[in-house]
Amino acid sequence: MNLGQRNFIRSNPTMNFLRITLLLGLISSTSHADGWTVGLARTVITPPQPVFMSGYASRNKPYQGVVNHLHAKALALSDENGHRGLLITSDLIGFRAAVGDPICERIMKASGLKRSQIILSSTHTHTGPSTTTKIEASGNMSKEDARKLYDYTGWLQDRVVEMALKALKDKRPAVLSRGLGVANFVMNRREPTPRGIILGFNPSGPVDRSVPVLRVTSPDGDLLAVVFQASAHNTTLGSRHYDICGDYAGFAQAHLERKLPGVQAMFMLGCAGDANPHPRGTLDIARQHGEELGEEVLRILDGKLSPVNGPLATEFSRTAVPLRPLLDEDEMNEFLKKRGGWRPWVAGKMLEVKQKGESGATHYPAPFGVWQFGEDLTLVAMSGEVVVDYVYMLEKALGPLNLWISAYCNDVYGYLRSARVLDEGGYETRGLYAGGIGLFSPKGEDVVVDSIVGLARKAGRKIGK
């Protein structure tokens, strides 16, 4: 632009108006560019052919039909400084380390992300496929069944990696905000009886009924995605159900996406290790819970939400959570006497370890992560099937404000119990069922809480706020 052109613009009112409008547009664009950018992607992960389902050991055949398709979904975040995070949710029972770790390694190699920048989350549906990294007959599965499941697992890993990389390439300016609601169908399942604690119905037992919601919009206010959570086992449907289904979490996501066309709804599961949906047992009830949860999320989205600003800081560690020694001879015999259930299985696995002349593992390397969003939000990504006590322990240790605690992230290896649950007994004391065998020590809860507090402090959370 020459001097004459600049003088013409200064002296011409219309051109001045256009210049101011252009400058305001540039300022606005720069403001958005300096804030959050997001990328979204999704993929269907329903097995192309019938395979064995996961969650109930009594099932003796592959799935027979499909009620609704299962999905994996990705949300890629980047703050104004280019710090990135990748959240992956899935309609699966969980990513065990043997399946999830290779996915993360491939994403890291292709994208340059660090392990702390990836969260693999699952809805823990018990009406989805199992996964395996070995071709061997086990339980009710033949070797051919195992081969089909092995092939599916590889196919699943490929699709999740492809989807993740697609989300990382899909960059658009965004605004983040959050709100909180309530899920009334969450029920403690540890029922006291004269015979001890059973899996049942305990209205007076502790649960987390909160429904945290993260809203992702364009700078103009158009809704792009919503991440939400509930803390009940995704098990409205029981072991006699042989159709693929996302259970209440799947119905909730579908309800939101039907009501909000073009929006990506992503579900995370909280500390649901000792909570079930109530009531439960039928497909209609699963749909009812899902739609109830979806309506609560819609209510939150329509209300006043709090902003979530950067910068984004991510931390991750594999914490050595202590295991108690293997069962002694008397304990082993007592476990083996039980008919059915988890105790004979645990005793049998421990017996195999002893017969090999091994002493058993002393710790399990449980992964934990923390994402810190400026001073506005701390997302804690816990692994395993975490009981509700950890919500209260972490709120006490970190402070209850601006805190989102998720479980079933990165590695679902077994039940992460508390000392209280261990003392009371019951199903949730069973410990590891993947990645080895072992019962967690009562000292484990302190180790876990201390580790997460350390990660949060390193990420920048002001402890106690």
Polypeptide structure, described:
This protein has 465 residues and is α/β, with parallel strands linked by helices. It has a domain at 34-318 and 369-374 and 381-410. Helices cover 34% and strands 25% of the residues. It is built from 11 helices and 21 strands. It has helices at 3-11, 13-33, 97-111, 143-169, 247-259, 283-301, 329-337, 342-355, 389-398, 419-424, 444-459, and strands at residues 36-44, 65-66, 71-78, 84-90, 118-120, 172-182, 186-188, 190-193, 196-199, 210-217, 223-230, 243-244, 264-269, 275-277, 306-307, 312-322, 363-373, 377-381, 385-386, 403-406, 415-416. The strands form 6 sheets. Strands 1, 3, 4, 5, 6, 10, 11, 13 and 15 form a 9-stranded mixed sheet that branches. The protein has a 4-stranded mixed sheet with strand order 16-17-18-20, covered by helices on one side. A two-stranded parallel ribbon has the order 2-12. Strand 10 (210-217) and strand 11 (223-230) form a beta hairpin. Helix 1 (3-11) packs across helix 2. It is globular and about 65 Å long.
